[in-house]
């Protein structure tokens, strides 16, 4: 085998080893974190029982008390 052919064979063997390692790896691939359209997950504030829509019949004073 010529020097060039031996080098190419060695390169193909290395590539085959890398491919085999990735195919038969016992490590689980890392899951990608899903992106939210609504912003960062850490910025969300969840208050159980707090309605997301204010009733229309609230006075301005009740509105201010509710929102503050």
Any overview of this molecule?
The protein is built from 2 helices and no strands. With 68 residues, it is mainly alpha-helical. This is Splicing factor 1-like.
Number of strands: 0
What proportion of the residues form beta strands (DSSP E)? under 5%
Helix content: 40-55%
Rg is 30 Å
Low-confidence spans = none
Brief summary:
The chain has 68 residues and is mainly α. Helices cover 43% and strands 0% of the residues.
SSE arrangement:
Blueprint: H1 3-23, H2 60-67
Region (Disordered): 17-43
Protein name: Splicing factor 1-like
Organism: Oopsacas minuta
What attributes does this structure have?
rod-shaped; 0% strand; 68 residues; 43% helix; Splicing factor 1-like
